[in-house]
Amino acid sequence: MADRLILMGVVGRAHGVRGLVRVHSHTADPAELAAYSPLLDDAGRAFTLVWKGEGVAELRDESGRPLADRTAAEAMVNTRLYVPRERLPAAGQDEFYLADLVGLAARDPAGAPLGTVATVHDYGAGASLEIAGPNGASLLVPFNRASVPAVDIAAGIIVVAPPAERLVAPPAAEDAP
Predict the structure, then answer these.
(1) What is the DSSP letter of 55?
(2) Cα 27 to Cα 130: distance, rounded to the nearest angstrom
(3) Which is nearest to 85 in space by CA: 73, 77, 97, 95?
(4) What is the pLDDT of residues 53-76, one digit of tens each?
(5) Are the C-beta atoms of 130 and 138 separated by less than 8 Å?
(6) In CATH, which of 1.20.1050.10, 2.40.240.10, 2.40.30.60, 3.40.50.300 is domain 5-87?
């Protein structure tokens, strides 16, 4: 886990002509993003973020130089900003960094292996875990207490109780619109 990077923000559009950018922060308090500097991009380049206004920031490279102008700022649009996982505070009780779930062994309530957490999907309505099974099939379960009653990060295991499958019959011809 030492080399896992956690997405903390994304550079938005350029702001003005002096190299400032809009930044979308994923921290609870957006102003806290600057405290995690240096932030890394996908290429491993380090940047320091200095807020200049609400949502508007100056990005400085490793030598402390800010972006030169609007053209340089426009080149940064959609740049993802990360921090190494170990720089984040410990999660509270019954709280998890979604990235920490990837790679955990998934077992059913009786202890039988189901596979490994391959991906965590979160589209805003709640996270779901994609579990890669030993036969190559994937199992997708909602990440909630009913479907995942136990998570033990230290032991590297989650317990998964997949919801029962339900077949829904198509509407009868007379019920169809």
Answers:
(1) T
(2) 25
(3) 97
(4) 999 999 999 999 999 999 999 999
(5) yes
(6) 2.40.30.60
Take residue 130 and report the two structure tokens written for it.
């994609």
What is the length of the chain?
Answer: 177
| Candidate CATH numbers 3.40.50.620, 2.30.30.240, 3.40.50.300, 2.40.10.220; the one for domain 98-159 | 2.30.30.240
Q: Model-level pTM?
A: 0.71
What φ, ψ does residue 129 adopt, rounded to 5°?
-105, 135
Question: What does the block give as tokens for 160?
Answer: 């998964």
d(CA 49, CA 34) in angstroms, rounded, equals 5
Q: What is the DSSP string of 94-163?
A: T---HHHHTTPEEE-TTS-EEEEEEEEEESSS-EEEEEE-TTS-EEEEE-STTT--EEETTTTEEE--PP
Tokens of 69: 């102008």
